[in-house]
């Protein structure tokens, strides 16, 4: 028993140092911009860069749009499948897992060929079209996480009874969906939203190949051209991931404590 | 469904509405997931003029493309095996090691974050740590007079990329394997001990046979995860390390292979490899779940 506990401590110590040392290294490096002393110069340089603000804002907006449109697609579908089409659930679940199987770079390659300016749907021909395509690509990437989060939340509520209760009170479909179903699966919607936020903020491949000024390609550009700013950006990016995952865990803990029904 | 539509018109109207409910999702999936992929898959079997051919697939077996696949597979195998091994010991430590509970919740929270901390920033973190002027490199040089880079180590190489990838591989393993280890019942161990089994015999003959579908399945998932990743590698090595996603990236950007349809074949190769490992993963997970009821 004692040997086992010692082994466990050793495993944790090795693991923890592997995880913590790169974070310390990044933090230390980001403070090294001034030769003689530690300073926040690299952060100052990052925050004063207008491209940082622009790309950060762009990705933030993309994340919000992806979450809104993703949820408008996923929640009604998950609801409908549970209520009316339980037999197609395996198919829908399989489709939602496909983005984990097909690498992102392959998906975007397909977009570039299918929606180029000489095709029937020339989305990449205009800026707004490309923005839309990028948003759809982010929706695709986050589909596995969004669908699973929402579907799990929906398992905890009795969709059929809620619907019948709302119908017998004279509610129409939009009312049922937005005032009855959405609020009840809010925990799932929020978990899906946070993980989507983390994915979109750091995403590189899609945005780079679609040539949009997002945060991921900006990070890569800074990394290729500057010395200390990349570390500062990595610290910021890690903080964003930490924040969204922290909020996610908070929400899912809340979800578990809520009374679950079959 | 077709039988009901044929028999009664009233039900058929309802059936149509039922199917219309998932139409937006299906259209979305077709337009942005299935058709783009199928387009590449069929393109892999066509000449630029549009005739059927196996030429593109055969051209994948040229030295430069084969070497790209080979180094991709090596990096993915190494990082998934390393990630699986270390992740297994960490999961074992927090589930069965008798450690305080705050370590368990701390590691699981951190794993949730770190498994999503990939891409470009991860490359920066490792450059700042193990790069030529990174924290660890400088520390070893100043305190032990040990020059890491004189040993032939290079972060921008197979080994460096493997170490970097493990940063998101290990947490993923911990996250997936912890529930599997939680499913191991104390009674099994007690029963084995009463029958006189040593710890080694218990693990070899009871625990590991139950765990192996989870272990192998998750390792395959990690493999696919590493195989499709590009951002970290691109930010770390630029285009100096010739792995498949980077080659495909260069092909999309500027047709470096001088044959667009060969690019489709390259993409098809990636889908086949990640597809096979994911299908095996799903199959193994179904086997593993038999013990988790």
From TrEMBL, chain A:
Membrane topology: Multi-pass membrane protein
GO cellular component: plasma membrane
CDD domains from the UniProt entry: TM_PBP2 (cd06261)
Residues covered by the ABC transmembrane type-1 domain: 56-249
UniProt keyword Zinc-finger, yes or no: no
GO biological process assignments: transmembrane transport
Spans through the membrane: 7-25, 56-79, 91-112, 132-150, 189-210, 230-251
Protein name in the entry: ABC transporter permease subunit
Organism: Sinorhizobium medicae
From TrEMBL, chain B:
Residue ranges annotated for the ABC transmembrane type-1 domain, each copy included: 69-281
PANTHER family from the UniProt entry: INNER MEMBRANE ABC TRANSPORTER PERMEASE PROTEIN YDCU-RELATED, INNER MEMBRANE ABC TRANSPORTER PERMEASE PROTEIN YDCU-RELATED-RELATED
Gene3D superfamilies: MetI-like
Record-level GO BP terms: transmembrane transport
CDD domains: TM_PBP2
Domain of life: Bacteria
Organism this protein belongs to: Sinorhizobium medicae
Keyword tags: Cell membrane, Membrane, Transmembrane, Transmembrane helix, Transport
Topology term for the membrane: Multi-pass membrane protein
InterPro entries: MetI-like, MetI-like_sf
Family as reported in the entry's similarity comment: Belongs to the binding-protein-dependent transport system permease family. CysTW subfamily.
Lineage: Bacteria, Pseudomonadati, Pseudomonadota, Alphaproteobacteria, Hyphomicrobiales
UniProt keyword Magnesium present: no
Name used for this protein in its record: Acriflavin resistance protein
Protein localization: Cell membrane
Transmembrane segments: 20-46, 52-71, 83-103, 123-144, 156-181, 201-224, 231-252, 264-284
Pfam hit, one: BPD_transp_1
Gene Ontology CC: plasma membrane
């Amino acid at each position: 028993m004692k040997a086992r506990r010692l082994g466990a401590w050793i495993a944790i110590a090795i693991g923890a140092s592997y995880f913590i040392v790169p974070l310390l290294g990044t933090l230390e490096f980001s403070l090294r911009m001034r030769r003689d002393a530690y300073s926040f110069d690299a952060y100052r340089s990052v925050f004063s860069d207008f491209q940082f603000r622009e790309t950060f804002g762009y990705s933030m907006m993309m994340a919000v749009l992806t979450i809104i449109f993703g949820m408008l697609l996923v929640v009604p579908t998950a609801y409908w499948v549970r209520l009316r089409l339980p037999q197609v659930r395996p198919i829908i679940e399989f489709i939602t897992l496909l983005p984990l199987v097909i690498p992102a770079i392959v998906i975007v390659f397909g977009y570039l060929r299918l929606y180029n300016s000489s095709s029937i749907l020339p989305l990449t021909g205009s800026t707004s079209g490309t923005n839309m395509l990028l948003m759809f690509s982010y929706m695709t990437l986050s589909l596995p996480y969004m669908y699973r989060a929402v579907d799990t939340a929906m398992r905890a509520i009795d969709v059929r009874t809620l619907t019948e209760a709302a119908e017998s009170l004279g509610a129409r479909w939009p009312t049922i969906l937005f005032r009855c179903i959405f609020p009840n699966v809010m925990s799932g919607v929020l978990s899906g939203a946070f993980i989507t936020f983390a994915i979109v903020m750091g995403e590189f491949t899609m945005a780079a190949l679609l040539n949009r000024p997002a945060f991921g390609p900006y990070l890569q550009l800074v990394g290729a051209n500057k010395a200390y700013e990349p570390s500062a950006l990595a610290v910021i990016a890690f903080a964003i991931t930490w924040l969204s995952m922290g909020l996610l865990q908070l929400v899912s803990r809340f979800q578990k404590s809520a009374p679950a029904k079959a | 469904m077709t039988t009901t539509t044929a028999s009664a018109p009233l039900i058929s109207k309802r059936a149509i509405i039922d199917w219309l409910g998932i139409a937006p999702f299906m259209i979305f999936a077709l337009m942005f997931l299935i058709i783009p992929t199928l387009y590449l898959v069929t393109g892999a079997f066509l000449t630029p003029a549009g005739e059927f051919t196996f030429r593109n697939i055969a051209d994948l077996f040229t030295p430069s493309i084969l070497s790209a696949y080979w180094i991709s597979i090596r990096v993915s195998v190494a990082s998934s095996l390393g990630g699986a091994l270390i992740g297994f010991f960490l999961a074992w430590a927090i589930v069965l090691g008798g450690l305080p509970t705050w370590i368990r919740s701390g590691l699981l929270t951190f794993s949730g974050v770190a498994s999503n901390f990939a891409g470009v920033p991860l490359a920066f973190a490792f450059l700042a740590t193990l790069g030529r002027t990174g924290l660890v490199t400088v520390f070893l040089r100043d305190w032990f007079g040990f020059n890491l880079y004189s040993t032939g180590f290079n972060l921008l190489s197979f080994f460096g990329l493997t170490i970097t990838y493990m940063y998101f591989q290990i947490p993923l393993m911990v996250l997936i394997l912890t529930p599997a280890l939680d499913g191991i019942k104390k009674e099994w161990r007690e029963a084995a001990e009463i029958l006189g089994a040593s710890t080694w015999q218990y693990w070899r003959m009871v625990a590991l046979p139950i765990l192996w579908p989870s272990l192998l399945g998750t390792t395959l998932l990690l493999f696919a995860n590493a195989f499709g990743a590009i951002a970290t590698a691109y930010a770390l090595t630029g285009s100096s390390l010739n792995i498949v996603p980077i080659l495909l990236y260069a092909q999309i950007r500027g047709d470096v292979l001088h044959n667009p349809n060969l690019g489709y074949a390259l993409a098809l190769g990636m889908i086949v490899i990640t597809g096979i490992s994911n299908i095996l993963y799903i199959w193994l997970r179904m086997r593993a779940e038999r013990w988790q009821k």
